[in-house]
From TrEMBL:
SMART domains: HTH_XRE (SM00530). Residues 12-65 form the HTH cro/C1-type domain. It comes from the Bacteria. Keywords: Coiled coil, DNA-binding. The lineage of its organism: Bacteria, Pseudomonadati, Bacteroidota, Sphingobacteriia, Sphingobacteriales. CDD domains: HTH_XRE. Residues 104-131 form a coiled coil. InterPro entries: Cro/C1-type_HTH (IPR001387), Lambda_DNA-bd_dom_sf (IPR010982). This is Transcriptional regulator with XRE-family HTH domain.
């Protein structure tokens, strides 16, 4: 594969970043320290047992991690977006998820959450105003 191939730790790191997950969160989910996650992400090799747990937390298959490459992601994005009409739907899907769709989904969830928080703050403010008046 040559030097261009990402080692397995780097792949885990990239997928974790695409998931919008911090090392701390991954560590907490796995029940290990953040340093341990950092060490894993610097490793060229990761034991299958550990890899299975990590894959589960990241919501991908072990194969998706092993087959991960930046090219695959870019290829995926281009096919999903530029060519969504003229390509077969399974072109470039070495993945169980499209990173961009996931990012958009996470972003939308974050916005929705912020809007709910804002709404509840507004309601608190209104309640306070009303209490002061009466």
């Amino acid at each position: 594969m040559g030097d261009a191939a990402l080692h397995i730790g780097r792949k885990i790191s990239r997928i974790r970043e695409l998931r919008g997950m911090k090392q701390e969160s991954l560590a907490a989910e796995l029940g290990i320290s953040q340093q341990a996650v950092s060490k894993i992400e610097q490793s060229a090799d990761v034991e299958d047992a550990a890899l299975e747990k990590i894959a589960k937390v990241l919501g991908v298959s072990v194969e998706a991690i092993k087959n991960y490459s930046d090219e695959a992601v870019i290829y995926n994005i281009q096919n999903n977006y530029e060519g969504s009409n003229n390509h077969g739907s399974n072109v470039g899907h070495q993945f169980n998820f499209s990173p961009i769709e996931k990012i958009v989904q996470l972003y939308d969830e974050k916005i929705a959450l912020l809007e709910r928080l804002l709404q509840s703050e507004k309601e608190k403010v209104e309640a306070l105003k009303n209490n002061r008046i009466h």
